[in-house]
Write a structure and sequence with these properties.
The complex is a heterodimer of chains A (209) and B (337). Chain A has 209 residues and is mainly alpha-helical. Helix content of chain A is 71%, strand content 0%. In chain B, a hairpin with a 2-residue loop joins strand 1 and strand 2.
């Protein structure tokens, strides 16, 4: 049963990630990305790590891809803009992909093959307690560093959005009634850079176009 | 083998029962909303189909079934049809981990009054709930209509913003209970409901939940006066009914979560027996739903910048303060007991 589920989920994950890369429409690519994330979360559940599965869905499927969709819809990206014409990045992608594939093949060739998740991980692995214990004892310094980096990113996004503002902002002008905080008009040209922490600012903007 | 089949059968019956009750509740929640709003506005609400309009929901459902299903020109047909399904699926699956009562025995068999008992219960609800935004944003995009796209964008921004304070408000009860399991959280409130220890958390939760479910005063995504009807302006017939259903199921879900985390779940005051648990639970949910309708009848809609300011500058800092205060409280309670 577990093997059957794993095969189905794995094939779905591979299929949807291929579709994600291959699809011409960026909206569909983002959707296939969601499918990939959800299927990966299901595989985490099979591996007895429900906490990581839930976090995967909340953060990646629930927040990150929504931001992607947001930017794609906002900028109304056309397929033609997105087609890569240069050869360099493509070549690099093939080299890197080949390296990873080789590494995976080496692991597969030399590895031992347990049949179930229980054989791989100790009991309680991936539970909230286990993750929290490791995170707040052994890895507390990297954890704090990561949170400071995120904070820097948020502050940076706000600073970028502020600096683009040419005139002092008035609290509410006429445009506010049609839905947008007036200060955000200045932020839109940089919307992709500023979306990380401040994404809601842009929504009312579409009205002004 | 027979025992396994029995377990699966019991679960199937439970799922069918819960969904049946849920869908009936949605139908009569709509009726109740129209009635209550009517009386608030000195009208009488639906009156003609059945006594006091009690059969109005049936008439409405029949109408929605029989209407023509229009797909606009230039719409993305696949995504257009997929979006209502995503909205409903995400709303319905959240209900699976809600505990409605303790273990009761039916014909000598112990039956647990919940569909699933998951270790990460509350995270599961947040996870499937966060997928619901795709229904709105995709529906808005696929309709090939500016108003619906705007509604979809607004809804996604609103839901992503308010999810933060919603999640932070839930951390208080979780810290006090020391578990993410819904059943464990309810058991921890046997003697004292968490609303007594978490009044601020409860208020933050209810306000964010109103925003998450796009209810007045936060119904910006479908503001009639600006966006016609927002993300579902191009939807008709059955697909529209799906969005409608998703919205009301989400409303019931947030009421169930509030009951479980803040109002002691199936624990009652005075009269308690395993069989009365679901009655207590439903009573509390009904009070919250009435509150939501009352708020709708009372408050005007926020402006968009006010909505964002309230979310980011008021609720979020308050939620952080609440989490820190709860931490001290939990430490103190843990030391004294």
């Amino acid at each position: 049963m577990e093997l059957f589920l794993f095969v189905v989920l794995g094939l779905t994950a591979i299929g949807s990630s291929l579709a994600m890369i291959g699809h011409k429409n960026p909206i569909y690519s983002a959707l296939f990305m969601v499918v990939t994330f959800v299927v990966t979360a299901a595989i985490y559940v099979l591996l007895k790590a429900p906490f990581i599965a839930a976090i995967q869905i909340i953060i990646y499927a629930g927040a990150v891809v929504v931001l992607f969709l947001f930017v794609v819809m906002f900028l109304n990206l056309k397929t033609s803009i997105l087609i890569e014409r240069r050869r360099g990045p493509l070549l690099l992608a093939f080299v890197l992909g080949g390296l990873v594939a080789g590494e995976l093949a080496a692991v597969v060739a030399t590895g031992v093959w347990p049949n179930t998740a229980e054989a791989l991980v100790p009991p309680g692995f991936g539970s909230v307690t286990a993750v929290a214990t490791v995170l707040f004892t052994r890895y507390v310094v990297p954890f704090e560093i990561a949170s400071v980096i995120l904070l820097v990113g948020m502050v940076g996004a706000i600073v970028l959005a502020r600096r683009a503002s040419p005139e002092p902002q008035t609290a509410y002008d006429v445009s506010a009634a049609s839905g947008g905080p007036s200060g955000s008009r200045a932020a839109t040209p940089r919307a992709p850079a500023a979306t990380e922490g401040e994404e809601p600012v842009g929504v009312g903007m579409e009205v002004h176009r | 083998m027979l025992a396994a089949l029995g377990t699966i059968g019991a679960i199937a019956i439970k799922v069918a029962l819960v969904f049946g009750i849920l869908l009936t509740m949605v139908a009569y929640l709509v009726w109740l909303e129209r009635k209550v709003l009517g009386h608030i506005q000195s009208r009488r609400g639906p009156l003609h189909v059945g006594p006091h309009g009690l059969l109005q929901p049936l008439a409405d459902i029949t109408k929605l079934f029989l209407k023509e299903d229009v797909i606009p020109d230039g719409a993305d047909r696949v995504v257009f049809s997929l979006a209502p399904g995503i909205a409903v699926a995400s709303a319905l699956s959240a209900i699976a981990v809600i505990p409605f009562g303790q273990v009761v025995s039916v014909f000598g068999y112990p039956i647990e009054l919940h569909i699933a008992d998951v270790d990460i219960g509350i995270l599961y609800i947040l996870a499937v709930g966060s997928l619901g935004v795709y229904g709105l944003i995709l529906g808005g995009w696929a309709s090939n209509n500016k108003f619906s796209l705007l509604g979809g964008l607004r809804s996604s921004a609103q839901m992503v913003s308010y999810e933060l304070s919603l999640g932070l408000a839930l951390i208080g009860p979780l810290m006090l209970a020391g578990t993410l399991r819904m059943q464990g959280i309810v058991e921890a409130q046997r003697h004292l409901w968490f609303i007594c220890l978490q009044p601020l958390g409860f208020v933050i939760y209810v306000v964010s939940a109103l925003a998450e479910t796009n209810r007045i005063p936060f119904d910006l995504p479908e503001a009639e006066s600006e966006l016609v009807a927002g993300y579902h302006v191009e939807y008709s017939g059955f697909k529209f009914a799906f969005f409608f259903l998703a919205e009301y199921v989400a409303m019931i879900t947030v009421a169930c979560v509030a009951t479980t985390l803040f109002l002691g779940g199936y624990h009652g005051i005075g009269l308690t027996s395993p069989w009365l648990g679901p009655a207590w639970f439903m009573g509390k949910v009904a009070i919250l739903l009435f509150l939501f309708i009352w708020i709708r009848g009372t408050l005007p809609r926020f402006r968009y910048d006010q909505l964002m300011q309230l979310g980011w500058k008021v609720l979020l800092p308050l939620a952080f303060v609440n989490v820190a205060a709860t931490g001290f409280l939990a430490l103190w309670l843990g030391r004294s007991s």
